[in-house]
Amino acid sequence: MTIRESLEKREREYLSPFAALSAESKGRDKAEPQCDIRPVYQRDRDRIIHCKAFRRLKDKTQVFLAPEGDHYRTRLTHTLEVSQNARTIAKALRLNEDLTEAIALGHDLGHTPFGHAGERALNRICPLGFEHSEQSVRTVEILEKDGAGLNLTWETRDGIRNHQTSGMPATLEGKVVRFSDKIAYIHHDMDDAVRAGILTEMDVPADIREVLGSTPGERLDKLIHDIITHSMDKNDIVMSDEVHEAMQGIRKFMFENVYTNKVAKSEESKAEELVERLYEYFCDHPEKLPSPYKEIMNSGERLERVACDYVASMSDRYAIDMFSEIYVPRKWEY
């Protein structure tokens, strides 16, 4: 018996009857030999961590555009916090922690530079539309490894595709990540907003503080405990009505006071224009696209989609540098 087979046997003996077992995965689009050490979801996680799109998350906006302070979240630190929350819940419920972690680490791989501002710009200007959850799937299926993709399992891709509020993942592990994403951004975006001087903890409505607590740590603890308590031994991931209502309340509070705050978002219109201009440039000059993107286009993909692929892949810094190279005049040097 290989190490992988012994780990799969342990899953069958220990995990919840509602967990996704590695040995029962629907598999990959392209058949490949099994690893003798790692079950399939562990391989998915490893492939995501080692891919270029994951590394670029370190320089992509979470909420605050190109923040000067060292302690503001980026898209990468957001991803790590989602993963940690999700793993805590999955372990307590005896779900498949490897699958949970793979989905969490991959859920934002397709996010644009400048966070949701970049996403709005591409969705507005591209006739094919743009949504970061679908782009994350496209990243792992097609764009990574110069067009070869990562060949992840069906379950991991399903969880990535359905991590947003409107999605409905097929596995409990995917549902855990779907909740953990909201918990993470409610937690750390509030923390960053307080750090930025936009809010204070006492600005949170009293009825919400009464249910969830008055500090980021108290809220995080309450939300995670509530999910674990109310999902134990169930074929679903749920929260109590009281805590779910409070979570929706603080989410609404954040949208009203942070995500649409004129001070915090004062530069977003510039970011959106920058993204639109880059998209238009590469639609007008497809010969300027890097070779892997040209090959995807030559295989039959529409130019508008490939231009989206390239612009969405950029980090904040790279997008600004690219815009400067294309549109900002250089001084004359004799």
Write the layout of secondary structure elements.
Layout: H1 3-14, H2 40-50, H3 52-56, H4 75-92, H5 97-106, H6 115-125, H7 132-147, H8 154-161, H9 172-195, H10 206-212, H11 216-231, H12 241-259, H13 268-284, H14 291-298, H15 303-313, H16 316-327
Descriptive account of the structure:
The protein has 334 residues and is an all-alpha fold. It has a domain of 221 residues: Hypothetical protein af1432, CATH 1.10.3210. It is built from 16 helices and no strands. Helix 4 runs parallel beside helix 11 and helix 6 crosses helix 13. The longest helix is centred in the middle third of the chain and has 24 residues.
How much of the polypeptide forms β-strand, as a percent range? Answer: under 5%
Total strands: the figure is: 0
**Pattern of helices and strands:** HHHHHHHHHHHHHHHH
Compute the separation of the termini in Å: 71 Å
CATH A-level architecture of the domain at 39-259: Orthogonal Bundle
Mean pLDDT across the residues is 94
Portion of residues within helices = 55-70%
- Taking all Cα atoms into account, the compactness measure Rg is 21 Å
Structural class: mainly alpha
CATH class of the domain at 39-259: Mainly Alpha
From the spread of the alpha carbons, the general shape counts as flat
Might you state the CATH topology name of the domain at 39-259?
Hypothetical protein af1432
User: Regions with pLDDT < 50 over 5+ consecutive residues?
Assistant: none
Name the CATH superfamily classification of the domain at 39-259. Answer: Hypothetical protein af1432
Q: Number of DSSP helices?
A: 16
Question: Main β-sheet, in a few words?
Answer: none
